[in-house]
Amino acid sequence: MAASYMIGIDLGTTNSVVSYIQTGVENAAVELLNIQQLTSPSTIENRYSLPSFCYIATMAEKDKGSYDLPWQKKSGFLVGELARKQAADVPLRTVAAAKSWLAYSKVDRREPILPWNAPEDVEKISPVEASKRYLEHIVSAWNTQFPESPLDKQQVVLTVPASFDVSARELTMEAARLAGLPEMLVLLEEPLAAVYAWLAEAGESWREKMNVGDTLLICDIGGGTTDFTLVGVSEEEGELVLKRIAVGNHILVGGDNMDLTLAHYARNVFADKGVNLDPWQAVSLWHACRAAKEQLLSENPPQS
């Protein structure tokens, strides 16, 4: 009999992560999915996160097959680490922050609008399609690793910002179903996922740390959004219980803004030297600043 799993997917603005646990097994541990992805042309590696970037390939690149994966041949796009690298080199062909677009009601999020302001000869996709491609990659990576336990037959939870409105949540569900996730998919607000993780780690000891009337403030600073959720502690039938009592407004502030601030500073440095960047060079600089920031803040940063 094939093993069954409970799977959690964090579809992030900048990175997506998958965790899973085998059900029906005593003392089973939660594990992270090592996701197959391209890290350079024709080089496939496993990473514990999938960068939420989609690179639109040229016809020449597609025919060459440099972006082939075990489940995808001569594709017109790629997602993941190599797509993130392409964002700095070829920004006009790279979709980033699609998740933020899902919450932007002033555009039709099913229309092909990304990459935003890309030239006419570049194929565009919708925010829903971009999200679908990230999730589709996750489904394929899972099914390659667990062929006897296909993802659409498992219990799956997909996280969304607490501040996502009904429309953004419905669009996320639409992308998920198009990607092949199960119909009985559960959406879970990201700050509440953090609370559940804390409860799982604390065990019953959390009841010794909290009292009736206490409140928990969860602040989730992501790549493109910041989420606030307030959880209250109350008592029911002699037991402490937690209830969500408030959610903050949708705030499009996150790690991307730090990168933009660095890029703005660097752009002014160029301008002071008489070098004025065009819009696409500015986008490329933004992605380069992100890469530099991540390298400097990594576990093994450069010494100089």
Q: Could you explain the architecture of this structure?
A:
The structure is a single chain. The protein is α+β, with helices and mostly antiparallel strands. It has 2 domains: 185 residues, ATPase, nucleotide binding domain (Nucleotidyltransferase, domain 5), CATH 3.30.420.40; 42 residues, no CATH class. It has 9 helices and 14 strands. Strands 1, 2, 3, 6, 10 and 11 form a 6-stranded mixed β-sheet that branches. A 3-stranded antiparallel β-sheet has the order 8-7-9, sandwiched between helices. Strands 12-13-14 form a 3-stranded antiparallel β-sheet. The longest helix is centred in the middle third of the chain and has 19 residues. The mean pLDDT is 92.
Topology:
Layout lengths: L4 E6 L4 E8 L8 E2 L2 E6 L2 E5 L2 E2 L1 E4 L2 H6 L12 E3 L1 H9 L4 E3 L1 H5 L24 H19 L9 E6 L5 H13 L7 E4 H13 L3 H4 L5 E7 L4 E11 L2 E9 L7 H18 L6 H18 L8
Parallel strand pairs: 1-10, 10-11
Antiparallel strand pairs: 1-2, 2-3, 2-6, 4-5, 7-8, 7-9, 12-13, 13-14
CATH architect. name of the largest domain: 2-Layer Sandwich
The CATH C-level class name of the largest domain: Alpha Beta
Structural class: alpha+beta
CATH topology of the largest domain: Nucleotidyltransferase, domain 5
Question: What is the straight-line distance between the termini?
Answer: 54 Å
- Total count of helical runs of at least 4 residues: 9
Q: Report strand %.
A: 25-35%
Poorly predicted ranges: none
Overall geometric form: globular
For the biggest sheet, the summary is: 6 strands, mixed
